[in-house]
Design goal:
This protein is an all-alpha fold. Helices cover 60% and strands 0% of the residues. The protein binds iron/sulfur cluster (2 copies). One iron/sulfur cluster binds next to helix 6 and helix 7.
């Protein structure tokens, strides 16, 4: 994936709403806090977005739409990432893309 394609995806996401995935340290604390045990969310999803891997995000549409937006992950995130807002942005992007 080229740098331009990567930047293009982030621009698309930020056009939908604030998307602060770059603050994620990939520590995994959020996955441990998730009541659904959604391992995919959010750290891998944020990496996919930052790397411009739209196909991987499409493949993860099930977990993205299963998220309860309960903020349990956000409450324990040491980096203060706005996880649920990022998930909302990813949902909106998927709907725009026709997923
Ligand atoms: S807890 Fe926060 S910093 Fe850690 S992986 Fe999850 S979103 Fe990233
Ligand atoms: S908002 Fe709730 S359901 Fe969604 S990833 Fe975070 S802890 Fe899991």
């Amino acid at each position: 994936m080229s740098v331009l394609a990567t930047a293009g995806m982030i621009r698309q996401l930020e056009a939908i709403g604030p998307f602060d995935a770059e603050a994620c340290m990939n520590c995994g604390v959020c996955s441990a806090a998730c009541p659904l045990g959604i391992d995919l969310l959010p750290r891998r999803l944020f990496r996919y977005a930052l790397l411009g891997l739209g196909d991987r995000i499409h493949d993860a549409s099930g977990p993205i739409f299963s998220c309860l937006l309960c903020r349990a992950c956000e409450a324990s995130c040491p980096a203060g990432v706005h996880i649920t807002e990022n998930v909302r942005v990813l949902r909106h992007w998927l709907l725009q893309e026709g997923s």
